[in-house]
Inverse folding.
């Protein structure tokens, strides 16, 4: 019986393309989302999305599905980001924001600010990661942060 050589030092890093990133963002936001709904959202067939999810699970990129239980009154970090960018249109930046499940709303507004983004992050660390990625978007000149201290419902 011949043994096949195994190189323990070579670990192929799984490739994650834009569709996989979109799938992961949607599952982060709602792990119970139906495959058919994900397929509609990202414009792929149901079978292609199912296969991609299976591959993401097998490669260990998706390691499980969990319920996140928030403590009563604990909403994490809520913030508004004022975006100032050069060139491009709001729609271009809105598409970039879709990869962050924490982003709840993007608004094109009048005045000096090009876009107002509302997000809710689980922690200050996660908020900082998202803000850093947004700052590195092409054409981004400035990101101004406004952390929500208190909300009043009417």
């Amino acid at each position: 019986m011949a043994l096949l050589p195994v190189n323990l030092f070579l670990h192929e890093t799984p490739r994650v393309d834009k569709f996989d990133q979109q799938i992961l963002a949607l599952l982060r936001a709602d792990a119970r989302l139906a495959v058919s709904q994900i397929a509609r959202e990202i414009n792929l067939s149901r079978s292609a999305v199912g296969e991609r999810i299976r591959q993401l699970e097998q490669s260990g990129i998706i390691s499980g599905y969990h319920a996140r239980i928030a403590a009563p009154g604990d909403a994490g970090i809520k913030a508004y980001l004022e975006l100032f960018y050069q060139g491009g249109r709001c729609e271009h930046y809105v598409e970039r924001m879709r990869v962050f499940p924490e982003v709840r709303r993007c608004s094109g507004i009048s005045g000096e600010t090009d876009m107002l983004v509302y997000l809710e992050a689980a922690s200050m660390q996660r908020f900082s990661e998202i803000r850093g990625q947004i700052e590195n978007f092409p054409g981004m000149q400035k990101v101004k942060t406004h952390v929500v201290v208190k909300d009043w419902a009417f």
In short: The chain is about 35% helix and 20% strand.
